[in-house]
Amino acid sequence: MSKGIFDGLKVADFTWAAAGPIATKQLADNGATVVKVESFKHPDSIRLGGPFIDDKPGINRSGFFADFHSSKLGIGVDMNHEDALEIIRPLIEWADVVAESFRPGIMKKWGLDYDSLRKINPRIIMLSSSLYGADGPWSRHPGYGAQGAALAGIQHMTGWPDMPPAVPKGAYSDSVSPRYALSAVMAALIHRERTGEGQYVEMSQIEATAQLVAPQLVELQLTGHEAQRSGNVKAGAILHSVFRCKGDERWIAIEIENEAQWAALTDVLGDAEALTAARAQGREALEARVSELTTPRDPFELMTACHKAGVPAGVTYRGSDLLEDPILDARDHFWPLHHEEMGTLKYNGPAYRFEKTPTELRFASPRLGEHTDQVLTEILGFTPEDLAGFRDSGLLQ
Questions:
Q1: InterPro entries this protein is in (predicted)?
Q2: Catalytic site positions
Q3: φ, ψ at 263 (rounded to 5°)
Q4: Ordered structural domains, the chain, with CATH
């Protein structure tokens, strides 16, 4: 197999939770050597959150952590130890990129702010990601994903008009911002290739997430109309909603944008006369009639019939559906990787394909401190005697 597109890139990864690790995962799965730094005193927080394999909690048993850390090496270093820089300084000298996603001020407390890093390695690129950004009046506030979606304007527009705003599942801003973080790091690497200069890349997760509401903000400025919660309604669509199907909590999404699609849907569902009459009565009547016709139908068979007829439709997949989906399977989306505690699990592969430099998920997520000895001896050049001294002092966790 060809080497990954980031082969040779070296990353010191101090990120935690989701926003930072998702970005560095893309580097690791595409060939970069990514060394994740944490400790048993201060493990990555999502190691402590489920789902856990076999519902048995454990520091190395979180599926949440696992999927964000494929292909990474993990070391355990107590960053609050007075001698932490004995290990971290050589790591910075080795690295091309340092990534962190703590509250602003934490890296400086450790002597690892950008001004300090570039004195150690003038070519270093540092990525800092936080909810509110590195400066501004709220920069030091702790922040979590639900706050990010709210402050970026997402939640106000999510839900039904007669109900309170709905919270998108999970830490929404943590899922959006890594895409911008990765692009920014790539731009900084291109700049360094041209000039030899490293630089500091700083990102606010709220500002990244606010990019998603750009059309609504433009509309507000042009027309004065502020976007409101609209449930499943889409302006201009003949039909745009999710409908119950046969089975326990089975649904199908159907979107009809033009008359050709409408005619095809009436053929698939049958009872064209009743559907046309319901359409004339308005959206609620139409959705009610469509639901009556979809409820006795198997969702997968109905989706197949819709596709054959040219009707945009999709089953609302569960996680178990995704793992068994023939389309994802045919594209080799999931990668089975073996983990010493969790066994073999399917990990999310890339959402893109490189023709010349294919992505390869090389190994499962690291157990905490799994690669400490390997990294310190093979990459940083410490001796076994050095490691014994570090352990005696409590520096290695």
A1: CoA-transferase_III_domain, CoA-Trfase_fam_III, CoA-Trfase_III_dom3_sf, CoA-Trfase_III_dom_1_sf
A2: 174
A3: -65, -40
A4: 10-211+332-393 (3.40.50.10540), 239-320 (3.30.1540.10)
